[in-house]
Design a protein that fits this description.
Methylamine Dehydrogenase, Chain H, 4-stranded antiparallel β-sheet, mainly beta, 1 helix
Length: about 350
Amino acid sequence: MRLTVFIAILLSIAALASGQSWTKRYLYLSMPDGAQQEGRSDPPGIMIFDIDNGHKFVRRIEVPIFTEGLRGFAGSVKTHRVYFSSTNRRLGAFDLETEKVVWEKTYEVGCDRSSITMDGKRIYVPTGWWYSGEDSGYLIVNADNGELIKRVQVGPQAHNSIVSLDGRWMYLGTRTMLSIYETATDRLIRQIKDVGERGIFPYTMDSRNRIGYICLGDHVGFDVVDLQAGKVLHRVFAGDQPIPHRTHGSALTPDETELWISDQVGRKLFIYDATKMPPAPKGHVELSQGGHGWVCFSLDGRYAWSHAPEVFDAKTKKLVATLKDGNGKPVSGSKYIEVHFRDGKVVQMGNEFGLGRK
């Protein structure tokens, strides 16, 4: 019996003996990913993996509407829901406790990777990297019922939005620009231009909202951005020589000591020492496949997940598990989230993005 499983059993027995409920940690992977063919498994829906039992496949919740392909998968512990956006311009809410779609709406332009306020009341929905119209930007949507509250024009190809973990700010990436809004007032605070080379791709930031790490669009690497001064501090390229294809995925370990970035074409995750400025290379891990590109960490910082089936121990960099469906086929995607349950209730959730939590 593996040591981790043995420890989990002992802790569970101790919890039962003391009358306490045991918290179960799961990885919820939506399927299919609208941005990659690799790692797909039918039928469409949500695949659940037991984090504390070697990431073993638990079961699948069939959600037929997911067949449109998912573009985002944001969650709220306040509402115990995940909010999915699809390739077909659809946004919806799925209740994790009842396992039912609560509502779904189709919007005129589109819905890319969204984020939700900490109180679970409003969703910020980018209009999509595919849309370059003058009115490109984001929608503010009522998280309770999907009704449109406001549409805000920002700039072309609005792609990823992130609500900071302290709930104060909403970040929005458009073509070579990062915009920062105050969530309490929806007031534009700052716009940082000429970042990310060509088209702003995924990004992350530390827990104090001081430093952002923005993926490059023409090379494997990232820009280091002072979020408060609104300027680029450093541009870091991976490898001995610049690698001429885009980066899609950046994540800080929860303790903010390392930055990992995705090289999906090269099938690697590059790792940097984030305690140094600029971050210094520490090595890389190999992936079995390409794909959309993504990287994120478990809330406790122990596991690293990406757009590939491999699960790595974030400290040792060793491969510790492979995500597989009920038939033993490796599966993967870039739209997933960590969910903790106790007595059938959602008690904690992670984030699509690998945000610093120090």
